[in-house]
Design a protein that fits this description.
It contains 9 helices and no strands. Helix 2 runs parallel beside helix 8.
Length: 190
């Protein structure tokens, strides 16, 4: 528990030293890391999920413009087509996905944002657990696609920054311990 906080304090200090030369994901992450240092992981998790929900919602909403939504101009089209196994898919399907890429990206990020905001809600609703799962899956899918995009279009550091914070907040506090125990059992051959 203390190691986690010390690591985050060191990380926040690194942001302070690097400021103002930070990328967007660094600014997002420093807010989550600082919040976690101040109040602890358990208390920070719901608020951090909502913070990321607002960030993703805003990113999707910001894409709702004529340039991004035009599949001939949008970077979403390039990224989507690069990820498709086009040699194994009918050209009609590749074309349809290319045309849909901007809308899928914008509305996917908006849906991801809504899921994380609901997941971080302080009210215990029946939707909160489902929203957390949907939010984690959509976050992982988005960032896996970003990581798998070929150079020069991949921005892996962005995905690692964001996905690691969302998983840190969305997974139960026992998940890291369970993962370490599993690794230990695999390593010992048990």
């Amino acid at each position: 528990k203390h190691f986690e906080r010390v690591a985050l304090v060191v990380r926040v200090a690194g942001y302070v030293v690097a400021y103002p030369c930070l990328w967007d994901q660094s600014l997002w992450s420093v807010q989550v890391d600082f919040l976690t240092v101040i109040v602890g992981r358990r208390a920070a998790a719901p608020t951090a999920l909502q913070m990321f929900g607002v960030f993703y919602f805003a990113a999707g909403f910001w894409k709702l413009n004529t340039a991004f939504m035009n599949w001939r101009l949008s970077c979403a089209t390039i990224l989507m087509v690069q990820l498709l196994p086009e040699k194994m898919m009918p050209a009609v399907l590749v074309g349809a996905l290319a045309r849909a890429a901007p809308a899928l990206t914008a509305f996917g990020e908006i849906a991801l944002g809504v899921a994380l905001v609901v997941a971080g809600s302080p009210r215990r609703t029946s939707y909160r657990r489902l929203a957390r799962r949907v939010g984690v899956v959509l976050t992982a899918a988005l960032h896996l696609g970003i990581c798998l995009a070929p150079y020069p279009n991949q921005i892996t550091n962005f995905s690692v920054f964001c996905l690691s914070r969302v998983l840190f907040c969305a997974l139960p506090a026992t998940a890291p311990r369970a993962a370490l125990e599993l690794v230990g059992k695999i390593g010992s051959g048990k």
